C-alpha cells in the first residue's frame, strides 16, 4: 500500500513538473509567435557531438571506420533568415586496415571552415537550417612505439554541406539534429599508382547539439 502511495505521489509530482515546463515553453514560444518583428537574432552559438562515417572508394572509406567527434560553431544573422559563420570540429577515427591507410595506431581529424546558410521557419517550435561551407582539414596520424612512434600530418581543402532540424526550447535555446557531408581534397604525397586513392576523402556525419541564441 505504501509503495502504491509513493508511486502515486511521484507520478503527481512528475506530471506537475512536466506541465509547468511545457507551460513555460509554450509561453516563450507564444512570445516568439506574437512578436516576430521583435524576435531578431544576432548570434547563435552551437555545441555538438557527432558520429563520423568515412565513405567512398578511397583510403578513408576503405581503411577507416566510424568514430566520434565534437564541434563548436558560431554564426551571425545578416538578415532574419540568412547567416554566415565559422566552426571548429574534432573527430577520432578508427583504423580498420593499415595496409590501406598506413602503419598508424590512430588518426585524428580536425576541421576549420566558414559557411553561409539559410533558416527556414516550419512553425513556432521548429526551424530547418541548411548551409554550405569551405575550409581546411587536417589528419594527425600517430604511430605506437612498435610502429616507430612517429607523427605525421595530412592536410587538404574541405567542402561541407549540412542541414539541421532545430527544436526551440525558448527564444534563447534550441536542440538540433542533422546530417552533413564532407568532401575533402587531400594533398598527400603517395606513389603515383596510389594517388587517386589518397587525393580525396568522403565523410557522412550525424550531429546532435545545443544552440544558444542571442537577440539583437
Structure characterization notes:
The chain folds into 2 domains: 38 residues; 176 residues, Beta Barrel (Porin). The longest helix is centred in the N-terminal third of the chain and has 33 residues. The N terminus is likely disordered. It has an 8-stranded antiparallel barrel. The protein is elongated. Strand 5 and strand 6 form a beta hairpin. By secondary structure, it is α+β, with helices and mostly antiparallel strands.
Per-chain topology:
Elements: H1 2-34, E1 41-55, H2 59-63, E2 64-77, E3 82-95, H3 98-101, E4 106-121, E5 126-142, E6 151-170, E7 173-186, H4 195-198, E8 200-215
Antiparallel strand pairs: 1-2, 1-8, 2-3, 3-4, 4-5, 5-6, 6-7, 7-8
Give the tally of β-strands. Answer: 8
Major beta sheet, strand line-up? 1-2-3-4-5-6-7-8
Which structural class fits the helix and strand makeup?
A: alpha+beta
Q: What share of the residues does DSSP label as strand, in percent?
A: over 45%
Largest sheet: 8 strands, antiparallel, barrel
Helix content: 10-25%
- The overall pLDDT, averaged over residues, is 82
Please tell me the total number of domains: 2
Radius of gyration: 22 Å
Report the CATH architecture of the largest domain: Beta Barrel
| Shape field | elongated
SSE sequence, one letter per element: HEHEEHEEEEHE
Q: State the CATH class of the largest domain.
A: Mainly Beta
Q: Could you please say which CATH topology of the largest domain applies here?
A: Porin
Low-confidence stretches: 1-7, 13-18, 28-35
- Give the distance, in angstroms, between the N- and C-terminal Cα atoms: 56 Å
> What's the helix count?
4
Amino acid at each position: 500500500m505504501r509503495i502504491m502511495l509513493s508511486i502515486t505521489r511521484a507520478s503527481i509530482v512528475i506530471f506537475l513538473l512536466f506541465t509547468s515546463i511545457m507551460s513555460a515553453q509554450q509561453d516563450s514560444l507564444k512570445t516568439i509567435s506574437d512578436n516576430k518583428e521583435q524576435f531578431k537574432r544576432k548570434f547563435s552559438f552551437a555545441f555538438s557531438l557527432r558520429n563520423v562515417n568515412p565513405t567512398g572508394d578511397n583510403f578513408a572509406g576503405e581503411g577507416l571506420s566510424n568514430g566520434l567527434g565534437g564541434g563548436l560553431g558560431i554564426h551571425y544573422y545578416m538578415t532574419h533568415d540568412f547567416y554566415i559563420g565559422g566552426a571548429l570540429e574534432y573527430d577520432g577515427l578508427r583504423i580498420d586496415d593499415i595496409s590501406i591507410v598506413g602503419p598508424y595506431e590512430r588518426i585524428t581529424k580536425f576541421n576549420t571552415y566558414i559557411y553561409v546558410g539559410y533558416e527556414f521557419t516550419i512553425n513556432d517550435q521548429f526551424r530547418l537550417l541548411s548551409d554550405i561551407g569551405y575550409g581546411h582539414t587536417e589528419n594527425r596520424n600517430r604511430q605506437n612505439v612498435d610502429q616507430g612512434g612517429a607523427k605525421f600530418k595530412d592536410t587538404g581543402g574541405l567542402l561541407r554541406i549540412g542541414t539541421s532540424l532545430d527544436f526551440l526550447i525558448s527564444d534563447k535555446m534550441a536542440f538540433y539534429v542533422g546530417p552533413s557531408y564532407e568532401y575533402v581534397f587531400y594533398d598527400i604525397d603517395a606513389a603515383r599508382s596510389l594517388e587517386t586513392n589518397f587525393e580525396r576523402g568522403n565523410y557522412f556525419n550525424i550531429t546532435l547539439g545545443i544552440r544558444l541564441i542571442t537577440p539583437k
